[in-house]
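in:
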């Protein structure tokens, strides 16, 4: 009696990891933690809802990103993450232009910004979900128009929430920082993600 050759293949206990993101920063951060993951851009636009807090939006959009690709990956670990910046009740989006970035930095000058970074790990083998929202607070210096212009020319943070790059010259704009995980501010909370991956049976490190 012959056997199906596929039945003789070794079965790996380590699932493949999928990063549901188009963010270069998240890809680089995950590369610090593990090797050999796959990147898949989320399917569809990110739906916005009025009346949400920053924390609520960060978690909802993290779920949206992971859920949007799970049909294509039925036996994988899928990571979804999103970050929302909030200053005195106002959400600070990715500016897109230098004019909007200049307006955002002028608004946040001398104030504190709350960064909510959502994280979702879907295990499509079991249907289990691991979730969290990291909270990081940044106190901004009082910035002159000249300082803002010099910073924007140097970093060009058009795709960054709150209009600065934490991984580049952004800290020069701050007077303080409170965080449990500095990688969360850049875009992906690696401390908690490593915990979630270990819980799912993926060896880290």
């Amino acid at each position: 009696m012959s056997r199906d050759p596929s039945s003789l293949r070794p079965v790996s206990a380590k699932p493949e990891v999928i990063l549901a993101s188009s963010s270069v920063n998240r890809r680089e951060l995950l590369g610090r933690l593990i090797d050999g993951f796959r990147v898949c851009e989320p399917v569809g636009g990110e739906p916005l809802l009025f009346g949400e807090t920053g924390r609520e939006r960060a978690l909802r959009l993290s779920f949206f990103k992971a859920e949007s690709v799970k049909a294509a990956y039925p036996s994988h670990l899928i990571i979804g993450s999103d970050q929302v910046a909030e200053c005195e009740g106002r959400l600070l989006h990715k500016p897109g232009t230098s004019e909007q970035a200049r307006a955002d930095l002028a608004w946040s000058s001398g104030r504190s910004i709350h960064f909510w970074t959502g994280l979702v790990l879907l295990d499509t083998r079991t249907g289990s979900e691991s979730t969290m929202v990291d909270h990081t607070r940044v106190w901004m210096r009082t910035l002159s128009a000249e300082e803002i212009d010099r910073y924007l020319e140097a970093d060009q943070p058009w795709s960054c929430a709150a209009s600065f790059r934490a991984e580049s010259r952004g800290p020069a704009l701050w007077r303080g920082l409170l965080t449990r995980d500095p990688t969360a501010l850049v875009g992906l909370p690696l401390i908690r993600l490593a915990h979630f991956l270990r819980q799912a049976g993926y060896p880290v490190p």
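note: DSSP finds six helices and seven strands in the chain.
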